[in-house]
Amino acid sequence: MNVRIEESWRLRLQEEFDKPYFEKLVTFVRNEYKQSQVLPPGHQIFHVFDACPFEKVKVVILGQDPYPNPGQYYGVCFSVPDGVAIPGSLVNIFKEIHDSLGKPIPTSGNLDRWVAQGVFPMNSVLTVRAHETGSHRNMGWETFTDAVIKKLSNERKNLVFMLWGNYAKEKRSLIDANKHLVLTTVHPSPRSADHGFFGCKHFCKANDYLRDKGIKEIDW
């Protein structure tokens, strides 16, 4: 199956695109777009892949579902476009960065500046029906994004993986911790951030690790 995605990713993921599960997933997603309002707009499903080629990735941040409210999600996990109110989880991410690194808290929730530096924030499910969180779970996206994680783990080295919350922590088994730094803590959601996300120092630890490996650190 031909999928429009940045070439370095296409080369590595073509074997997934050719599998029966992906064909079924595409059929499901296309029908959803015809019948319902689905996020993100179709051309943005692979936005984070298009904006961050395979060899450029330095830090992987794993999420679960896209934001379900129209106007929020455009293909980058935790990020929202300029001018959109910053969601609670991202507010807490910015707070942890401020507290641990002294960076000013941004007025925009757009994380494209991170992506441009090699941060790869990816949800495990890449589409959602508007206002229906989790409506596209267990349709095949998880199989695809697990394959992405395994590709990054197997074919790259010295990456930082940030796994926040129980769902993301389940992905730990896909990652070779001998080749990469794996950081885990609770989810930055307002419901859980006080129980370990604040003070986790993940952004400091990521930069320390990258610097130690001779890789340019991230300007968070």
TrEMBL record:
PROSITE patterns: U_DNA_GLYCOSYLASE. Residues 50-210 form the Uracil-DNA glycosylase-like domain. Pfam families: UDG. It comes from the Bacteria. It is found in: Cytoplasm. Keywords: Cytoplasm, DNA damage, DNA repair, Glycosidase, Hydrolase. GO terms for molecular function: uracil DNA N-glycosylase activity. It is an enzyme of class 3 (hydrolase). The keyword Transit peptide does not apply. InterPro entries: UDG_fam1, Ura-DNA_Glyclase_AS, Uracil-DNA_glycosylase-like, Uracil-DNA_glycosylase-like_sf. Belongs to the uracil-DNA glycosylase (UDG) superfamily. UNG family. This is Uracil-DNA glycosylase.
